[in-house]
Amino acid sequence: MTTNAANRLQSESTEMRREVTLFGGISVLAGIMIGSGIFYIGAIVLERSGMSLGLALLVWLIGGLVTLMSGICFAELGAMIPRAGGYYVYLREAYGERIAFMCGFGNFTLSNPGSIAALAVAFAAALNSIFPIDPVVQKVIAISTVLLLTLINIRGVRMGSSLQSWSMILKMFPILLILFAGLFFGTESPDLTAMPAEMPSWSTLMSMIGFAVIATLWAYEGWTNLNNIAEIKNPRRNIPLALILAITGVMVLYVLFNYSIFRVVPYDKIVEMVNSGNYYLGTEAANSLFGSAGLVIVGVAMVLAIFNSLNGCVLAFPRMYYAMARDGAFFKSFGKLHPVYKTPMNAQLASCCLAIVLILSRTLGELTSLVA
Q1: Using CA atoms, how far apart are residues 68 and 364, in angstroms rounded to an integer?
Q2: What is the largest CA-CA distance in the chain?
């Protein structure tokens, strides 16, 4: 790399407006990471942990520490190269333009719009769980939500970041309500022995733990997206801080939330639910704590969590296409900023259009399979 290129990458100068604060950065990360999966992934982790409550909590901790170590690497890269584009830029510098382009193009055509579409359809489905909505109307809601969030984020990164921060705060209320109610009012005394009832061989145990950790990594997914955003204030300080604080906070939340479930739902009931394929232990805990109101609390939490995650994706993803266009590796129009709001409007609109096409042509199950 030439000296000029190195200086350009390390420079904090950008045409975009650096209006995203440290809390805004944390909101983007935590907002995308904490989705509706908090209510059911714990059961999958528990199943893969041999139904050992203690081992399941240990697995959540291991998954969080693995994510944190990865996040620290990203924190250093974000401080070294405070540019829009995130891991597209890092791949370009490490492996060359072709590898970076393949990654970015795959994200543009399938992964990113598929994720936005899946979250939008899931958002409408979560609303349907609270009050019945016609399937056609659900599609309209999903499309309208993507379009609305795109327009909000085009209006400026400050507006999109503020919406992200407030929606994260709102979604944390029902989640923390269930968590603290479970910790303080739960009557169960969970056995936290960190070994399955039937002790397998050490090699089998290590494989079991690894398989369970993979499930937690899906729950922690989303921590890479902050580095896409060039509008972080004081990026050399705030990107590392946001990554470390967000990942650590989410790790603590997941461990405590699952422990609170174990304090409320009897172990035999947990085993019965998991064996029958009913993984919504969080819903069962809320129902036990609050009765019929618990279902409403969970429904509201899921709606807010999905909305918050969706807005984070709409905010972060187009920045990668903008970076590619600025490199001359993508449509030139994607590299242009709105003359007033200084946001990558064309990249945002393209992302919106692709997501809408997928919403119209795929079901939620098909969308999640497409992304995977």
Answers
A1: 30
A2: 65
Interatomic CA distance for residues 62 and 212, integer angstroms: 10
- By percentage, how much of the chain surpasses pLDDT 70? 93
Q: Which residue has the tokens 């232990």?
A: 281
DSSP letter (8 states) at residue 330: S
Angular region, 291: left φ>0, alpha ψ -120 to 50, beta rest: left
Q: Is the dihedral of CA 342, 344, 345, 346 positive or negative?
A: positive
Q: Find out whether 347 and 196 touch, Cβ atoms under 8 Å.
A: no
Tell me the three state secondary structure of residue 8.
helix
Report the C-alpha gap between 162 and 288 in whole angstroms. Answer: 35
CB of 321 closer than 8 Å to CB of 89:
no
The CA dihedral of 89, 93, 96, 102, to the nearest 10 degrees, is -20
8 A C-beta contact, residue 42 and residue 258: yes
Could you give the percent of the chain with pLDDT greater than 90?
A: 35
Choose among 246, 220, 176, 230: nearest CA to 27: 246
pTM (predicted TM-score): 0.85
Gap between the Cα atoms of 225 and 217, Å rounded: 15
Q: How far apart are the C-alpha atoms of 26 and 142, rounded to whole Å?
A: 26
Q: Are 91 and 100 in contact (CB under 8 A)?
A: yes
**CA proximity to 355, closest of 160, 149, 171, 85:** 149
Q: 131-154: string of b/e by CB count within 10 Å (b at 16+)?
A: eebeeeebbebbbebbbebbebbb
Confidence of residue 372 (pLDDT cuts 50, 70, 90): low
Taking 60 as the threshold, does the pLDDT of residue 8 lie above it?
A: no
- Averaged confidence pLDDT in the chain: 86
Mean pLDDT of 233-260: 91
pLDDT tens digits along 288-304: 999 888 888 888 888 99
